[in-house]
Amino acid sequence: MILRFFWIFGVIAMASALVCITRKNPVSSALWLVVTLFALAAMFVLLDAQFIAVLQVLVYAGAIMVLFLFVIMLLNLGRPAPTDIRGPLGLLTATVLAGALVLQLRVLSESPLPSSIQLPPGAITALQQQQGIVGAVATPLFGTYLIPFEIASVLLLAAIVGAVVLAKRKL
Amino acid sequence: MLLSPALFISAVLFTLGVAGVLFRRNVIVIFMCVELMLNAVNLTFVALAQTLGMGGQVFVFFVMAVAAAEAAVGLAIILAVYRHRQSVSLQNMNLLKDG
């Protein structure tokens, strides 16, 4: 049952991603990407990552895609324009390179995981019942990964300052 | 149980993102394709977190922070370029190429 739902959302994600990269209009591209992001959030729920799914909807679909749409409308790119898709040679190159990449990833995904580092099945669910869904993510985030977390906050500060400096006409 | 379909879907999404970067010329669409690739990697992280521990989910958190920073700075750069060139097409961004 879970597997069937997973495949349904996976097919939705793959199909809307395909539609997203082939739309001429950037606004419809962005909206199809939002469909992909929502399908991915549903897949995260099925993979026992409920908190990440909420973050996906809030941060990606809610904030980043609104930023994209905002810039598209600020630059007035929604109007009909000649297509920006490359000619047949570019399409052929892209298809060949993408096919090679998907074959490589297929081989990589079939390499077995060493059993010494694998958790027993149901370990994550047990951990979530013990610590709570948010607590299970927060405990390593503020413990083992505390320094990367602080560096991420500095990165976000730098990004805010950089965006203001770049986008402002006159400081 | 869900690991191999998740890895397959993630590979397909990443490849679609790469193909989009290769055959589009609009910088904003290319940027969205980069976001698509980051999301494919997130799916791999979450799927592997089920068997390898919560570190994968924590890394998705960091990927989201980096993606947000990248989107803010990248879109600001696109705005700045648009002011100079009146275009978001990669064909018109050849200042370094002409020499």
Describe the structure.
The complex is a heterodimer of chains A (171) and B (99). Chain A has helices spanning 2-22, 26-46, 50-74, 88-110, 123-131, 133-141, 146-167. Chain A is built from 7 helices and no strands. Chain A folds into 2 domains: 1-81, Four Helix Bundle (Hemerythrin (Met), subunit A); 121-171. The mean pLDDT of chain A is 88. In chain A, 76% of the residues lie in helices and 0% in strands. Chain A is an all-alpha fold and 171 residues long. Chain B is 83% helix and 0% strand. Chain B has a single domain (3-98), classed as Helix Hairpins, CATH 1.10.287.3510. Chain B has helices at residues 3-23, 27-52, 55-85, 95-98. Chain B has 4 helices and no strands. Chain B has 99 residues and is mostly helical. The interface between A and B is large, with 81 and 67 residues.
What helical percentage do the residues of chain A reach?
over 70%
Helix content of chain B: over 70%
Oligomeric state of shown chains: heterodimer
Contiguous low-pLDDT stretches of chain A (5 residues minimum) are none
Distance between the termini of chain A: 57 Å
- Return the CATH class of the largest domain in chain A: Mainly Alpha
Number of strands of chain B: 0
- Looking at the overall shape, the CATH architecture of chain B is Orthogonal Bundle
CATH third-level topology of chain B: Helix Hairpins
- Rg for CA atoms of chain B: 17 Å
Largest sheet of chain B: none
Q: What is the CATH-assigned architecture of the largest domain in chain A? A: Up-down Bundle
Total tally of structural domains of chain B: 1
Mean residue pLDDT of chain B: 88
Uncertain regions spanning at least 5 consecutive residues of chain B: none
Tell me the number of helical segments of chain A per DSSP (H or I, 4 or more residues long): 7
Q: What is the structural class of chain A? A: mainly alpha
